[in-house]
Amino acid sequence: LPLIQCFHVAKSYVAGEDILRDANLQILKGEFLFLMGPSGAGKSTFLKMLLGLEAPTRGHILVDGRNIHRLSRKDIPAYRRTVGMVFQDFKLLPRDSVAYNVALPLVAAGRPPGLVRSKVKALLQFVGLEKKAGTPCCRLSGGEQQRVALARAVANDPWILLADEPTGNLDPCASAVVMELMKAVHDRGTTVVVATHDPSLLEHIPEARRVHIHEGVFYEEAEASSTVCA
Ligand code: ADP
Ligand code: ADP
């Protein structure tokens, strides 16, 4: 069973203007997928639908076999914890410390204080920021901020990590570090979807699957040609 299934998904914000129009896509557990397309193609819209922040106008999105837009109100927080998200602009609490930012999703999930402490320590070790635990995020470089955001995104061990132009504000060196960490997250079994307009990101993970959004439809990038995703 694919982890993520999209069947005939259409999405419009304004009646008659479809961003996605008949989008079909299946993502297997453990895949690393680049979602490619120019600015405005609908990449963020698709990620927001996977997070449950936007609903498809038509069609269905199933995650682990469940229609995530039919979840009862009480099941939504638990679903959201199974999906981590990283943004181009980090979306950290800038005045709060690195450790506080990473601890937040653990506290929100009701983890006991001892576990929060040990998990934050492990996460900061993972992203190489254990020495900055007490530093306010606004004093970090962009690359460091994105590593904090990544630690926060995987704090509750999500099944899926979504990233929307995660290196869009970073220099090439910091981008390489962040992509290396995403690869490490993937190596631990997490399904990873990275949305970007930047083909140079592909070089970091050449073996990753590539899907393009064009005129509201997903296309699989094949060796010789592109084929519509069925
Ligand atoms: P991408 O991430 O590929 O740049 P987006 O999903 O952000 O694309 O945007 C796709 C299109 O949808 C754009 O034309 C954008 O202006 C429009 N759009 C995105 N969000 C909204 C919204 N909340 N309301 C109206 N239009 C939106
Ligand atoms: P360990 O394998 O002993 O936990 P690591 O250095 O490999 O040590 O990872 C440290 C921490 O980073 C883990 O405990 C976990 O909290 C976090 N981590 C790393 N990768 C992931 C992932 N894919 N999903 C969730 N958490 C992760």
UniProtKB/TrEMBL annotation:
Residue span, ABC transporter domain: 4-230
CC annotations in GO: plasma membrane
Keyword Membrane: no
Keywords: ATP-binding, Cell cycle, Cell division, Nucleotide-binding, Transport
GO biological process: cell division
GO MF, any single term: transmembrane transporter activity
Recorded family membership: Belongs to the ABC transporter superfamily.
Role this protein plays: Part of the ABC transporter FtsEX involved in cellular division. Important for assembly or stability of the septal ring.
Protein name from the UniProt record: Cell division ATP-binding protein FtsE
Organism of this sequence: Desulfacinum infernum DSM 9756
